[in-house]
Amino acid sequence: MRLCVIFLALATLAGADTLPDPVSRLVEARYPGWRPAAVVPHITEWFREYRFRFEPNLVRADFNNDNQDDWAILLIAGGRQVAIAAISSPKGSWRLFELASDTPDPFTYLLLYARGEPDFDFRTLKKFRHRANSLGLMHFRSTPLQFTWKRTGGFERALSLSDEELENQE
Predict the structure, then answer these.
(1) Which of 35, 37, 59, 85 could form a disulfide with 54 if both were Cys (CB 3.0 to 4.6 A apart)?
(2) Going by DSSP bridges, is the β-strand pair 35-36/109-113 parallel, antiparallel, or unpaired?
């Protein structure tokens, strides 16, 4: 019964994209009673207006460059807002990675930085292109985080500082 409620919530929230059954079961085993994190309506509207191909709390992308769909989910479990990634293997198995756990905040959402997309590193003051699909965890009250798959496995976590934030640190 609980899984049915979760599937319905995700279908309503994520439109056409829903988690594959094995991922849903794995998430439920690790985070019993989880639910998708709510995001304020104007962020959801912004996603629709700019026609993002993902939802503010559910992203499907190939994070580890193996040509398989992976998933990132922003969920609520145990009173915490948790960002996780489910990484597929060519054999059909999945691994979960907990990326962040915070106090719930409806102004927090996920953002996808697409492989090859240009960006700017405010630490080095250099332009770069993302070498893999990377995940942004955007916060209203704190510095956004970026998660990029390491070639050795697992995610590398980095602050996504803006130029204003760098000036304030000096």
Answers:
(1) 59
(2) unpaired
pTM above 0.85, yes or no: no
Q: Which two tokens stand for residue 61?
A: 């992308």
Q: Measuring CA to CA, which residue among 63, 70, 121 is closest to residue 93?
A: 70
Residues sharing a CB contact under 8 Å with residue 110, sequence separation 6 or more, in sequence order: 54, 55, 56, 57, 58, 59, 72, 74, 83, 135, 136, 137, 138
38 Cβ partners below 8 Å, 6+ apart?
57, 76, 106
Taking the C-alpha atoms of residue 142 and residue 126, their distance in angstroms, rounded to an integer, is 23
- pLDDT tens, residue by residue, 136-160: 999 888 889 999 999 888 999 988 7
Per DSSP, the three-state class of 6 is helix
Give 104's contacts (C-beta < 8 A, 6+ positions apart): 37, 76, 79, 80, 81
- Coil vs helix vs strand at 83: strand
Answer yes or no: are the C-beta atoms of 145 and 123 closer than 8 Å. no
Stretch 28-43: mean pLDDT, rounded? 96
